[in-house]
Each structure stands twice: as C-alpha cells, then as structure tokens.
Specification:
The chain is built from 6 helices and 52 strands. It is mostly beta strands. It has 3 domains: about 100 residues, Immunoglobulins (Immunoglobulin-like); about 110 residues, TonB-dependent receptor, plug domain (Ferric Hydroxamate Uptake Protein, Chain A, domain 1, Beta Complex); about 650 residues, Maltoporin, Chain A, CATH 2.40.170. It has a 26-stranded antiparallel barrel. It has a 6-stranded mixed sheet with strand order 9-10-16-17-14-15. Strand 48 and strand 49 form a beta hairpin. The longest helix has 24 residues. The N terminus is likely disordered. This is Outer membrane beta-barrel protein. InterPro entries: OMP_b-brl_3 (IPR041700).
Length: about 950
Amino acid sequence: MPYRHPGTNIKKKLSITFTFICIVNFLYSQKTITGQINDSIVIGNMQNASIVLLSSKDSIILASTRSDENGIFHLPLNDTLSQFILVSYPNYVDFYQSIHPEGKNIELGSIDLFPKSRLLDDVTVRQKVSGMKLKGDTTEFIADSFRVQANASVEDLLKKMPGFQIDKNGKITANGQAVKKVLVDGEEFFGDDPTLVTQNLRADMVDKVQLYDKSSDQAAFTGIDDGVKDKTVNIKLKEDKKNGYFGKLSLGGGTRGSHENQGMFNKFKGKEKIAVYGTASNTGRVGLSWDDADQYGGGNGNSVISEDGNVITYFGMDDDSWNGQYEGNGIPLAQTAGAHYSNKWNDNKVGLNSNYKMSKLSVAGLSTSKVQNNLPTTINYSTTQVNTENKSLRNKVDAKLNWDIDTSNSFNIISSGTFKHINTFSSTNTLTQREDLTKLNMGQNINTLIGDNNKFDVGGLFKHKFSKVGRTLSIALDYAYNKNLSTGYVKSHNEFYNNLDELDSTIDVNQYKTVNTNAYALNAKAIYSEPLSKFSSLVFNYGITINNSHSDKLSYNQGNDALVYDVLDSTYSNRYSYDQFVNKGGIFFNYKKKKVQFNLGTNVLGISMDQKNLFNNIDRKRNFINWNPSANLNYSFTTQKRLSIRYNGTTNQPTLDQIQPITTNNDPLNLFVGNANLKPSFRNNYTVNYSDYKMLTDRDFYFYMNYGNTKNQITTNTYTDTSGKNTYQYINVNGNYNLNFYTGVYLKSKKFKNLRYGFSPSTYFTRSINFTNNVQNVSKSANYTLYMNVSKSVDSLFDASLRVGPNYTTNSFSIQSSSNSKYWGLSLNPELDVYLPLNFQIHSDLEYQWKEKTATLPQTSLALLNGWIGKKFFKKQNLLLKLYGFDILNQNKGIQRSQNNNTISQSINATIRRYFLLSLTWNFTGSITNSK
C-alpha cells in the first residue's frame, strides 16, 4: 500500500468542509418564495401543479418548478426584478400574482385553485389571468377568458379575440392574413368548409383556440420550409365536451318568399366524431366555404409548379363558364347536406377522417355595367346588360387514413372524389360608343352550356425515423385525374356602325360547341435528412412529375339541315395535348438552436414540355431549367416576441387554356387566343412577420410585410380594332410587383373594465403591365387604410363594438393618364347586442361603405343595416325565437366599381334586398357515458 502523508487527509477534509459551508451559506443567502397548492373544492393538496416565476417587464421565465406530493413548492427569488408568479393545473383556473421581494423571503401560504367547471361569478382571484399565451410559433387563446352569451357559436367567440375579423360570409382574417383552415382538435371537420365549424360548434365547448401557420406534412416532419404555409385555426375542445351529442335545428320564413332552414347533429364519444347537416335557403346561406373554388376547380384550366416544386393540375368547365359558386351577385337558392366520421383506434396509432358533401345551387342574376376602355389614341364606352340562370349539383367525398406503424414508421393515405354537373344560360346585350358617343357596335349574345366535371385524387406519405436522431426519410406519392365534358350553344347577332352612326356590317354566330378535356398528374417525391450536429442537418430531396393533358375544343356550324350542327369550324376548333415531365432535386441546410431556426437551400427543376397541335400535326418540344431557392429565419427574442423572415423563388407554368393555340369566340366581341410560345414565369417573394405580446398589460402587436416581383409574368395583349372588337392574347411581361404592409396593435384599457381597443394600419402597392394595341400600359395602384377598433362589454347588459376604416386610394395608367384617380373612402362597422330582462335580446349591425367621386366614376355609398329582436326560452336559454331584418334601409343595390389595367368599370347587380324573417332555433345537447 503506498504511503500517504497525514496532512493530505486533513487538507482534503478541510476542503470538503469549506465547500459545504459555502454551499450552505449561498443557499441560506438566496431569497426564496414558497407556498402550498390546494384544491379549493375537495380541500386537498395538489401534486405536480406547474409554478412559473416570470419577469414583469418582458415575461421571461426566471424559474419554474412543480409542487411535491404535499402541494409544497420552493422557487429562488430575484431581489432586483419586478416579477409575478403563475400557477396552473389542467382543468383549473390559473392563479396569478405580482411579487415584490423587498430583500426578504416570501411565503405565499395556501394557494387555492378553482376548477373551471365550478368557477362562479362571485369567486375572486387575486388578479385576472391573461386570455392569451404564446407557445413557440402558436398563439393560444383561452376561451373562457372571452365572455360570450349562452349558446353562442365559435364564430361569436372569435369575434371577441384580438386580431380576428370575420366578414358577413364567415371568412376569417387573423392579423391581416386570410385563415385557410379551421381544425377541431387538430383534425379537419367537414374538410374544406370552415364555416361549418365556426357557425355550428358552440363556444362553451371550446377550451383553447390556437392560431398558427400550418406546414405540409413532409415539411413538418423534416423541419424544412417547403413554401406551404396555411394560416390555421385549431379549436381545442374541453375534455368534458368530447362525450355527448349536440346540434342545432333552425326553421325560418319571411317576406319576399325568404326562407332559411338548417339542421346539424353531432355525436362525440372520445376520439369518435359523427356529424350530419343539411340546409335549405335563399338568403345567401349556401353552406359553402370561402375557398370552394380552389378545392373543386372552376374557371380556366390550370397546371402550375407549386412552391415546393410539384406540378398541380386542375381544370374548370370551359373558358367562360360559371364556376359553380355564389359570390353575392344574383338571387340564390341552395340546398346542401353532408356527413362526417372520424375516429382513432389502437392507442391513437390508427386514425380515420372522412367527409361527404352535397350541394345543389341555382343563381338567377341580372347585371348592368358601364365600362370605360382606355386605348392609346381614344376612349370607348360600353354598356352591358347580362341575364343569367345558372345551376350546379356537386357531390364530394374525401377520406384520410393515418397509421403510426411503430415509433419509427408512419403512413397516411388521402383520397378524394368530386362529381359536379352544371347547367348555365346567359343572355348579353351590349352597346359600345366612341369617345364622341356615336355608336360603334351593338348586339346580343346567348350562351348555354351543360357540363360534367369529375375529379379523383389519391396520395400517400410514408415517414421513417432512423435510430440516429435527426436522420429521417419520407416518400410521397400522389395521383390525380380530372375529366371535363361539356356541350353548349353560342348564338349572337352583332351590328357595327361607321363614324356617321350608320350601319356598316353585321356578324352572326350560330354554333354548337363541345369540350372534352382530361388530364392526369403523377407526383413522386423523396426527402432524406442527415444530422450534421445536435443543432444542424442537411436535407436532400428528389422527385419526378408526369403531367399529361389532352383537350378537344370543337365548334360546329349548321349544315344543310338547319337542325343539325355537323360542319366543323376549324377557326374555332382545336385538338391539343400538353405533356410535361419534371425532374427535381435539391439540398437544404437546416439549423435550430434555442432562439434561432434557419434553413437555406434550393431546388433545381428540369422541365420537358411536349406540345402537340393535333389539328395540323405540329409537335413542339421545349426544355427549361428552373431554380427554386428559399431561405427562412425564425428568431425568438423571448417566448412572447418573435421575428420571421422568409424568401421563396417559385416557378409557374402556362396553363393549358393559355397555351392552346385556339381562338375562343363564346363572346364574338371579346375573343381569346392562346399562345404556344409562352414561357414559365418566376416569382421572388419576401415575407417578414413580427409579433410581440405583453402578458401583464395584455398588449398585442403584429407586423406583416410581403414583397413580390415576377419575371415573365403571364398577362394579355389586348387589340381593339376600329369596330370595337377586342382580341386578347396571352403574353409574357416583366416589371410587375406588389408590396403589402399590415400592422396591428391591440390593447386592454386599465381604467375601464372590459374595454379593448386597437389600431391596424395597412398599405398595399401594385405595379402591373399589359399591352393595348401593342402599346405598353403601366398600371400603378396604392391603398392606405387605418382601421380602428374598440369594444366594450358589460355582463348581462350589452356588448358593443366599432370598427372604422378611413382609406385613401390612388390609381394611375400610362395610357390615357387623364383617367388617373385619387379618392378617399370610408368603412364603418358598428355592432351592438343589448340583453334585456326576461331573456330578451336586441342585435344590430351596420356595414357602411363610402367612396369619393373620381374623374370617371360617381360617388358611391352603401349602408347595409341588419338587426333582430329575440327571446330565449327554457332554463338553458337554448330555444331562440327571433325576428330578423336584412338590409332594413333597403340600400343593397349591388353596386361595384373597379379600375384594372386599361379599363374602368361600375356595375349594378341584382342581389338580395330587404326582407324580414321569423325563425325558431333550438340548440340541443346531451351527455354520453363512456362504457368500457
């Protein structure tokens, strides 16, 4: 055994003793805050309650812990900072209290938490908890912090939350950006129709409302931004509301034949959700979401390279056909129905989400418009009256299956099918005059069309995590098929006059037209991520896309038999195929550490296009190399202050209708010509987002900026001949850009209870180029708006809000600059609910719009006043008898005006006018007992 000097052990013991004394002295000198967490109802200690100490200045977390088995907690106390303590426990009301150290330990004693289900009006907590929190990239609103009336809807709840705006059609805007999706507990509910969630789920079922940007499944898995960012609202339900049934039944009828009937039944049992609904209405409630046109297709056919490099294909019925939607013009009659089923099994490893929707819609319209057409050397004026009768029947079914195979592998399948049938009729009368008001041309054009659009799409995504943390592989495969068949007639008579107002010539068209378009797209994409360190990784991707489409557009004239259209008109007929093959590969660098997340990279696309004109056997092959660079930076100054800067470069391909070399004469006065020489366009897009939330003062601040410019933007060259006929051909131009700003500040009054106010200035600038008679026309437009909001509520007495938006608009054109305009506008939206004794309620809202007179357009104003008086019955106040008045001042004249490129127009459209409707609405609910 080696020899040790006795002094060695003595020194070692002294060192240990000294260290121990220092630690004890430090712990003794460190100020602390202690307390005990209890349940106020059962009078018991609460283990594992969350206790957080935060800085009062910026809400930075200073310390955190959890209560022990006796409910006791200890936290170190900072002597120099103003701070507050936040205690939270699931399904209990948060406890919040300011802390003033004053150089000594603080003993809070017993802290009683109140269950949310038992919290009464006379219970007083030491200070009200903020109704809003920031969690990473998610803004979370605590639903119970925003008071709404009994049986209020989620839409009513969102109107109370800062930053949210909801228009008369139910479209949601949050912090200046349109909300694309509304989820329930992270899952789609009736798929693409968010209004079915916001207008039919009750506010008292909601625990939290989350607002965030939803990425694609592959982007969320890899952590690399692929350009897909959908502003999303997620409705998180209370646990005790997930087992029961609820619904709504409403019957209403009134003056001018108005009726509005709807019913919805929902049964929730744990993870299982079952729902059915139906509506029948002629008041504008069509039961369709605000972006159905995107979901189902409509308008011109389109085939584009998306921001993540994939080719997306969809086609509408025909160039000038109705898109199957009600957009506020005309008198609608709608019947809709749908069903939803979703569930999860095997410890949530397997999940199914499925929906069926049917909609039957007819719209009768009458529109009168006046258009000023600015030409390089003169001005033409057109007056047009259009009568329409449009009908559509659509069925859609979709399903999504998620399967978590094990901890390393998962798989999901998404499929959908849409079957749409439309029947349209339009009759157009047009008078065009020269600048001296002599007649240029006049005529009538009648169009009829019957068509079917069938779409099918199925896709799968496989995700695998390797044993090494951060190493992943995902493979996506998607197949889409789209077929359109339509037939119709074009009958027109047009007269053309010389400058002496004398008839010079006529053109008559009487043709039978058929359209047969089919397309399919196959996309395959693999993404592999390899970690470089704990905080960084490289992500590689490769994919191919096969996109083939074929279009027959044939026009027939009458032959010897006047009843038979059997003579092909080759001028307005064409058979065309448009095939694309895309190879795409890319590499991205990703870095993520605490406050910073950054990624940078690019995709390279090799695009081969094969264009075949089958009418004249011309085969044209073209190849392009495109770059899709992107960069994304997210920085969190604190948990409640964030900055995001993003850049994306994207490529868009010409659509089939734009590139097919055929002249479309559905309107003989406005001809459209395809251009087989179109190039792909490339867009640079820059976005900045900044948010800052102060928990103590409940102050919320947002800033949003977007700038984009496009190379080879696809636009039109319009040639107007001496007879007033317009021929539009698609061309590429450079120099287009847009710039948008939005800022929002929302505050809570310290002096007046339940008073909130805010300011949200916004600005946009656009510059666009087109050609008129081969002369370049540069259009510039700018708008400056300052929205101001104030709301005040007094429990059981009233809720009042006011939104005011003065604005200033400028429009300028390089052609006919005398038509440039600068004008003021104003929007005013007050809303008031008064709660009277015996459960009576009075509601009123006003939508006021005013625009100043310009050099070419008259002053316009609209005051759309709506209101109702109702009485609620029963203990739960779940039966409402209501007398509703729409457009009480009878001012809804459907006036619209616009300035675009070289045209200035104002139209008056038939629309829903004043009516009064008596309705009875029953909100019902019941509980379901879980059985094992």
